[in-house]
Queue: 2 jobs
Job 1
Amino acid sequence: MQAEPLVRAQGLVKAYSGDPVVKGIDFEVRRGECLGFLGPNGAGKTTTINMICCFVEVGGGSLEVFGEPVDGNARAIKRRLGVVSQDNNLDPDLTVLNNLLVYGRYFGLPRERRLRRAEELLEFVQLEEKRDAHIRTLSGGMRRRLTLARALISSPELLILDEPSTGLDPQARHVVWQKLRALNRAGVTMLLTTHYMEEAAQLCDRVLIMDEGRIIARGTPRGLIEEHIGAEVIELYADDPSHGDAVGVLERAADHVERAGDEVFGFFRQGDRARALLPALAEHHIVHRRATLEDVFLRLTGRELRE
Amino acid sequence: MTGALERVAGAFRVWLRNYESWKDFAIASLVGTVAEPLLFFAAMGFGLGRFVDDIQGQPYVAFLGPGLVAATAMNAAAFETTFGSFTRMTEQRTYEAIVMTPISVAEVVAGDILWAASKSLLGGAVILAIMAPLGLLQSPLALGILPLAFGVGIMFGALGMAYTAIAPSYAFFNYFFTLVIGVMFLFSGVFFPLEGLPAWVGWAAWLLPLTHAVILMRALATGALDASLLPHAAWLVVFTLAAFWLSVRLIRRRLIR
């Protein structure tokens, strides 16, 4: 028997002063999973998770969190949620430790428990030495880790993360990913938004791809890649007229071809067919790689800029 | 009932957050809250006061003191819920972070207003502590000035908060402090009695919340309480409730989309 989902949205809608941003979406967050919302800027990801956090009012349709409609149950729902928002909103007037203690008090946790939990979390996010530091002295990566620790102070059943690694350098990003994987293994259900495909592939059991307020695809990262792209990709940089014949070779062999600027992408459902083509293209500027979630994303949402 | 208790607890947790961020910088903050009104009291009361006849049967400094407590309570609270709350709401995004926890918007607003009123209480208490040993308080009822200062702080804290909710930037507070707070500071009977001025001045002053606070403060300082004060008290209560209701509504509209 399937356990009751932690979040269930049906026909969920939101408009800001008449301008629709979420246009009727259905989804569930299942206990124990890590679900990712992928989408370009303006797809409606943040609005959707803000409705779950009771920070944006539901515009229409139904949204249940922990089995209760969000309207009228905000306090009970928020008690069981941990939120890592996109922008830094740590309390700059407080030290690192006090950020955790004061936040824990908002949940009504007794001081003993807050203190014990704060010490554990500072160790978990590797900020023990920064215990008494002020927020402005922390690097971006440290702030994000502290924001994560803060969201965990109340031992939430569902952790919501809005672009958890945006703006971090690669080292800091990988540390954040390690922490999130460890949490998910420990049984914390996670819902995250991202536009880093690698992040979704690394962390998520399932992903929903959103575009212009709708969910346009859903599945496991692997399943989506196989369904929409195939196995392998050859990218050809046609920056030189002598590449003309190579483009032809790629176009005839690939299952699907896309052009973007001076790049030609050949997509292959069977990897051996891509590899068989490599000798013929050896003289050319190519990249041969496995298909990724990014290929799915670009196929489904298009290549034009979103601003 | 548990609902009401939870709300009070929520507001108190926001108050505690402000207290904890304040205590590290308490000295700097006290200069604004306490030193400024004391300077006013010294300069006007003892300096200017030497050239002024008794007013309503008391020396000028005794006349000025209770009014200055009301004005100090107003300034301290209005400053806190404008510049202070605006910073927490916009730049620091502290409000946003708090309402992601079980705390509601109304509790954030109430916590900030109660914090502002606490500063009013502190400022008022210091002036009172100077007046008492100088024999400027004529009745033990003057102790009632303390809770009244807190109440005046809630009123102006709520008014400032409502203004903060609609302010697009810090520059916007110039209007508020010059045209609202500044006018009240000068024309609510703090520095001179309104009696004997043309009638329209009295009516205009009746519209200003600080006028009623000053009248009550003076009555407490002299111990001359009677039923004629009830309309003033009622005026303050009604205005405070309206300002609080409005501030919660406007902040929620700005914060929750």
Job 2
Amino acid sequence: MEQLKVKFQINGEAAELEVKASETLLETLRERLELTGAKEGCGLGACGSCTVLVDGVPTRSCLVLTAEVNGADITTIEGLAEETKLDPLQESFMEKGAVQCGFCTSGMILTAKGLLNRNPQPTRDDVIRSISSNVCRCTGYKKIVEAVEAAAALD
Amino acid sequence: MISSKFEYRKPTNVDEAVELYGEFEGSAVYLSGGTDLVPRMKLGLEKPRAVIDLKAIDSLSVLEDQGQWIKIGSEVRIFDLKQNELIQDLFPALASSLEATSCETLQMRGTIGGNLLQNCRCLFYNQSEFWRRSKGFCLKMGGEKCNAVPGAKTCFANYCSDNAPSLCTLSAEVELSGPKGQRRISLEELYTNKADKPFDIQPGEILTAIFVPKKKTIGDYEKLRVRCAIDYPLLGVAFSLAEGTGKLAVGAIGPKPIVVELGESPKQSVKEAVKGVLDQVRPVNNTVLDREYRKRMISIMAERLVNKVMEGAK
């Protein structure tokens, strides 16, 4: 079967891989690059737990073929901190207790990161609309909304 | 995991894309945002030999004011389109349905062309291959019978584009390019009214642009849904009024949007117009909501919507 050469930036480092055309970005991240922060929930784009940033845009990595991201700049939850300094969103998720089982957390944080990148001072409605892209089955969302608001206030 | 094996191509113009389609003798699919196609490939509903990615064709991502028409390239992302000032100002029904589409993250990936050409959906069809095989393939899978309505010889899957009804109320047209050249038809003509093959599109044709008459309209879109995010419409009702003529369109109930005219006094004529819709729909129990409920919600949502828009216009 045809193998495709794909190059992209992953958390600031260059990656060059040979992949099958049918391989999804989520499979590449988890199984080849051992970046298991992005989770496979539904696998059909309905839950958001596989969200990563592709050129700064929150993207469901289970719906994207790795072939499509040739040349892109990808950030996963593993690449959000600068060495030992966590991103303000990661800090505020801990501070506010916005994590229970943790399965949705990386997707939630990257969706929120995308929001704060394009709108550093979101209203509560903006935050709710944005994170409604992602499903959480534990927290009831309240703490997550508070954590995103707190991170926005820090900027 | 996608079990089918295919080749991936990324052409940079429409002619090259159409040519590539020909090379794979009709067993290729065009990829846009992938939010409909990739899940379909994962479920084995689509098993192409080649995936032709349209995202490197720059001409498809252009939105242009042509004076008489607003031309929307098929690859314009839903998120970008809903934030466009021309769309918000001229076509409030479309702005509203774009906002109601899925969720922000998927709006940033999904395109307007892909949204229009998403395949019909049914609780008995959008399932894993294992699930479908154990039940016996339905009509839409090339089988002998419908699994939603035992014994039926018609497919009852629903066309769940949020934006098709609003574009129908705006009298939109679509442009298609394929092996036999280019053609432009009204959006309503795109539909076959058959859920197992919902679009009148020839092999290799690409939806390249949507044209909306540049007229100031008032209007809105109402969506029946259970989650208020991510989910497909269980019923969608759009209404637009331009130069004294109103149009109402009802979607997600059957294989195409049902469009009716409301004339110059929409509030007075909506009850009668809804009867025309009810005569054409045949909802069955193939969504998470009961068919009777969805049917009854047509008149409730249509009247509520028209009254809201007309009250706001005073």
